[in-house]
Amino acid sequence: MARDQLSPDGLQRCLRYVDERRHQRLLLEGLAVQDPLTGIANRYGFLGVLKARLEEEAEGLVLGHLDLDNFRHVNDSLGYQHGDQLINQVAVRVKELLDPGDTLARLGSDEFALLLDTQEDPARAGRMATRIVDALAEPFRVDGESLLLGCSLGLARAEHDIEADPLMWHAHIAMRRAKTQSGCTFHIYDEWLNRSERNLADLETELRRALRRDELELHYQPRLCMQTGQVVGLEALVRWRHAERGLLGPNEFIPLAEDTGLIIPLGYWVIDRALRDLRWLLDRDVAPLHMAINLSFRQFQDSKLLPTLGRLIDERGIDPRWIEFELTETAVMRRTEQVIKTMKALRGLGVRFSLDDFGTGYSSFVHLSALPIALLKVDRSFVGGMASHPENRRLVRAMINLAHNLDLTVVAEGVETRDELALLRQFGCDQAQGYLISKPLPLAELARFLVFGARRGNLLADESAGG
Ligand code: C2E
Ligand code: MG
Ligand code: MG
């Protein structure tokens, strides 16, 4: 009997052990739901709290989504350490304003969520929002410097039966609405919220469905060599065949896809379809062509880009040297170093790059010469006004010279008239793309265009004969 009994010392040790294990477990659980930088809840912890509170009593709860404006620039210019300090200060400022029944959490890099209890006092949400944005509008001190931040706060009231996800989405939409104003501002989501914003929410759901149901299509716009008059390349341009709204152009849904992250699956769909169609064309003996595919900045942040692309190229049996990716100037300039690194890795697969919409961003000569690109596409806004504006003529000529000095091939976008084509030839432009040659075409029509492509050579011949 005595053997089974613990001595007082043993009992103490045992209790201490149990206590330590409990403490460790709590610590681990805490880490899983806590943001290590600020000590407040993380996204996971916040969702737990939100779901529990909604189940208990949704009425009177207000969800806030706070996003700092241009925080990336702070990180880029001051470095991550100071960026972290700033995040911490934001958390402290907001937390000081909250009541014990409220919750503050950090959702991601510069995004916070708050849950306010306004059951007793419905007007409290508006007052709190004002106090929070006012507090964040005051200068911050980082690294001895005074710094002003912009922020956008979106609020959404919980109504009975609403679940966590739609409530988070409402707050997000309201935050985006606040973002359309500068400085520190807030916006409350309500039934009167402008229809276009609601359409945006609908559009996102529809776009997800469109991807699943294969409602997207690619049209191809040919690119001509100015010397031979031959089609030397195609640009893949995505469209959405919407059941009610007809054929939608990329400008109507690519920005939304970029905002919501849908651009990643959408982008892979585009790459896969373009390679498949190129295979189809090659199998029908059209001359080898470059296939240009537009890439968004977001796709460059996807760690799976390189392996997935490698796999797709293998699967479709395409020689990678015929694949070209178009990146816009603004995309490249956002995180030049990181983008160049990814570009170089992709180039290792054998693909090449072009700089799209050149002239609309801010690339300097230094930047340009550092980019691993093979082509430069002069934006159509310069090409368009060439015949009537001497200024545009001078700019296009300068861009062509600059590109040639850097050993880059120049493509003029948006060529619509014979006059423009004539000027471009005179300036030594290498390739042309635009409605004059052809609009973007569905695959079958494009195949027909390529077969009767000789006619395009005549177009150029007429031009040179005429002047
Ligand atoms: P972009 O890459 O600069 O593509 C050229 C745009 O100019 C296309 O518009 C094309 O239809 C239009 N265009 C071509 N020739 C002419 C012309 O002579 N006159 C005029 N006025 N326009 C001409 P689209 O198809 O509406 O595409 C708009 C933009 O959407 C593209 O600009 C590209 O940045 C983006 N985009 C298209 N497809 C994709 C895609 O698959 N992924 C991504 N990330 N972006 C895409
Ligand atoms: Mg393009
Ligand atoms: Mg372009």
Automatic annotation (TrEMBL):
Start and end residues of each GGDEF domain: 59-191
SUPFAM superfamilies: EAL domain-like, Nucleotide cyclase
A matching Pfam family: GGDEF
Domain of life according to the entry: Bacteria
Domain EAL as annotated: residue spans: 200-454
Molecular function in Gene Ontology: cyclic-guanylate-specific phosphodiesterase activity
Signal sequence bounds: none
Record-linked PANTHER family: CYCLIC DI-GMP PHOSPHODIESTERASE PDEF, SIGNALING PROTEIN YKOW
NCBIfam families referenced in this protein's UniProt entry, alphabetically: GGDEF (TIGR00254)
Annotated protein name in UniProt: GGDEF-domain containing protein
